[in-house]
Specification:
This protein has eight helices and no strands. By secondary structure, it is mainly alpha-helical.
Length: 238
């Protein structure tokens, strides 16, 4: 039973009923938390319940390492938590509990720019009830839920300086992970090759030019993510 849940399978189909149900399930939870956090919970409850959620997301990510060790298939080239979403999942419990606004502002852009394509063109291949299917959706939908929670419930707002710092931080993180890839002969964050299958990366040219193209994509996406906050400030002044 445990082996069947943990062992890999290749039965997930993009845009299938499972794909849409997975998205809907997690977003119902997330939107419910935002509503309760804004309308019903006191300050302590706002922090406590988003912390529980963040810890669950982080735990699903960490458990992947132990699951693959248990199965005897752990591969240092693909199983370390060095993907951007993995790193953010481990950081968010600290950000949400301590209400670290600067950390949230850095991660907000990474999360919303990165998880959008992960939800639209998922790269995992395991179907429910496989553990990997649960982990993938918990991380890639849980992260934007927490990012938006900071804006909706905590009332945090973003400026162009936040976008600038976030872009600089992403490039520093990419540089560190790139050197880790050289050490482990790996491809974390898809810095050494594109992800398998058809994804948004497919539109950005061959390696290494798609990395340069990504800088332009990041600039556009970060700018678009600022628009709601700029409009909100404009409406309040008006």
């Amino acid at each position: 039973m445990i082996y069947s849940i943990l062992a890999e399978n290749d039965t997930f189909v993009r845009y299938s009923t499972e794909h849409w149900i997975s998205l809907a399930f997690w977003w119902v939870i997330g939107l419910s938390m935002m509503y309760l956090g804004r309308k019903r919970w006191n300050a302590l409850q706002q922090r406590k319940y988003i912390l529980y959620f963040a810890l669950f997301v982080a735990a699903t990510q960490l458990f992947k390492v132990f699951a693959r060790l248990y199965l005897g298939i752990f591969d240092i080239k693909i199983d370390l938590p060095l993907e951007l979403c993995n790193i953010m999942a481990l950081a968010m419990p600290f950000v949400m509990w301590y209400k670290w606004r600067f950390g949230w502002s850095i991660l907000f852009f990474w999360i919303c720019a990165g998880t959008a394509q992960a939800m639209i063109t998922p790269t995992h291949v395991a179907a429910f009830p496989n553990y990997e299917a649960i982990r993938y959706w918990a991380v890639h939908v849980g992260l934007p839920i927490m990012a938006i929670y900071g804006a909706v419930v905590y009332g945090w707002r973003l400026t162009w300086k936040d976008a600038l710092y976030s872009g600089i931080g992403m490039n520093i993180m990419a540089l560190l992970v790139y050197f880790a890839n050289l050490v482990f002969d790996a491809n974390y964050m898809y810095l050494n090759a594109k992800p398998p299958g058809t994804t948004l990366y497919s539109l950005l040219g061959p390696w290494p030019w798609y990395i340069v193209s990504l800088e332009g994509v990041i600039l556009v996406l970060f700018s678009l993510l600022l628009v709601p906050f700029i409009l909100l400030r404009f409406l309040r002044r008006a």
